[in-house]
Write a structure and sequence with these properties.
- The chain has 423 residues and is of the alpha+beta class.
- Among the domains are: 191 residues, FAD/NAD(P)-binding domain; 82 residues, no CATH class.
- It contains twelve helices and 19 strands.
- The strands form six sheets. Strands 7-6-15-16-17-14-18 form a seven-stranded mixed sheet, with helices on both faces. The chain has a three-stranded antiparallel sheet with strand order 4-8-5, covered by helices on one side.
- The longest helix has 16 residues.
Length: 423
């Protein structure tokens, strides 16, 4: 089992529960992938902001299964958008109809199109058009230019006009105003999953990066790490497709040509601990131009500051090409660019409010979901005997999320034959 995020851990758990011997490799020191956390006060805080929606039934079921259901809470925090220097709540039908930057008729069109996306059960009806074209047509030019185009541009840069409309459907259809969170941090869930895997006899190696995958002379699959090599009857990689191809030359040029062109942006996230609140909003989409981040997430307007030793926690997030200059900048240079922008949101803000900062970076965090994306997804079964692939690209039309990864894991395990293919 390659990868110790939500997908890899859930696959490993379901396999050991059905009696299979499992060894898991993860290059990071802790499980959780993009949802992994670090200690902050008496809790863990995720390196990249996370929450659940009411529709995330697989994650909720697993949280209850591993005995953490009593820590799952469902607040309804303020989700807003920054337009013209003002913050407008935009997280309910009432808020949409009262969204004053748009004339009344445009608000009605906006509400009607959102209502359609919530009720439309079949995202495949939207796979032949782009979000840009669909939103312009059905929500109108003013609503699109005010609300959606800035978000698409911030998230996907020059690729924003190519994003498939089914991806946008998923942003609306399955979301809820109430947001779920594990008091104390999602890291508890990942640590508990590792514990359950080990309780069933599974082995989990952390700080162990996979260096190669190949068919051994025995016909079994050999996984190489810096610590040596081990042979397995089958291997499931939850690593990004490009990385799996790079690690497995045996997949061949044709496979790489067919499936190695799936693109992703990296995640860049600044976490600030403040000595006081910055806003009264949990999630702020930054639609105004000139900001160095696309979202401001004030986590302690969602969870109480006491959970983090009295700190007020703010995330400043971006999805960017991995060669973007931000990834190479020093922490001080990033702060010098980001902090002045906070004064545009709260003119009272002063740099002295910041008591701590952390900056986290991760590759392959945001798939670029363009037209024809579904046709470019590799099948889970690869041409290499007993090598399977399942990763974040396969949760389409979603593009991230603990729940979707867990649901995919259960689907993959259910489809695996009871016995590996024989040579």
């Amino acid at each position: 089992m390659l990868g110790g995020g939500a997908l890899g851990l859930t696959v490993a758990l379901r396999l050991v529960q059905r009696g299979e011997a499992v060894t898991l490799y993860e290059k990071e020191p802790a499980p959780g992938g993009l949802a992994a956390g670090f200690p902050l006060g008496p809790s863990y805080l995720e390196k990249f902001y996370h929450h659940l929606f009411k529709s995330d039934t697989t994650a909720v079921r697993i949280i209850n299964e591993i005995g953490l259901g009593d820590r799952l809470v469902w607040p309804r925090p303020n989700t807003s958008v920054l337009v013209g220097g003002e913050m407008y709540r935009l997280d309910s039908p009432r808020a949409v109809l009262g969204f004053s930057p748009l004339p009344a008729l445009d608000r009605l069109r906006l509400a009607g199109a959102i209502g359609y996306l919530r009720l439309e059960p079949n995202y495949r009806r939207l796979e032949r058009t782009t979000a840009d074209a669909w939103l312009r047509r059905w929500m109108g030019a003013r609503a699109y230019e005010t609300v959606w185009r800035p978000l698409l541009m911030s998230k996907f840069g020059p690729r924003y006009e190519q994003i498939v409309a089914s991806w946008f459907w998923a942003r609306i259809h399955l979301r809820s105003s109430s947001l779920g969170y594990l008091r104390g941090g999602f890291q508890q869930m990942y640590d508990r999953l590792v514990g359950r895997i080990r309780d069933h006899g599974g082995v989990a190696h952390f700080e162990t990066e996979v260096q190669g995958i190949a068919t051994a002379s025995s016909g079994r699959l050999q996984v190489a790490t810096a610590s040596g090599s081990e042979e397995f009857d089958r291997v499931i990689s939850t690593l990004p497709t490009r990385l799996t191809i790079r690690l497995t030359p045996e997949l061949g040029d044709d496979y790489a040509h067919s499936y190695g062109n799936l693109e992703s942006y990296g995640a860049h996230c600044v976490i600030l601990s403040l000595d006081r609140p910055l806003t009264d909003v949990y999630w702020l989409n930054v639609n105004d131009p000139g900001y160095p981040f696309l979202a401001l997430v004030e986590h302690t307007n969602y969870m109480p500051p006491a959970d983090y030793g009295g700190r007020h926690v703010v995330y400043l997030g971006n999805y960017l090409p991995m060669d973007h200059r931000l990834f190479a900048m020093s922490d001080n240079d990033v702060l010098a660019e980001f902090l002045p922008a906070l004064r545009r949101i709260n003119p009272a803000f002063r740099d002295e409010w910041v008591t701590e900062h952390r900056i986290f970076k991760a590759p392959f965090a945001q798939p670029i979901v363009t037209l024809g994306y579904a046709e470019r997804l590799p099948p889970h079964r690869t041409p290499v005997r007993n090598l399977y692939l399942a990763n974040m690209s396969h949760v389409y039309p979603q593009d991230r999320g603990q729940n979707y990864s867990m649901a995919l894991a259960e689907k993959v395990v259910a489809s695996l034959p009871a016995q590996p293919e024989s040579t």
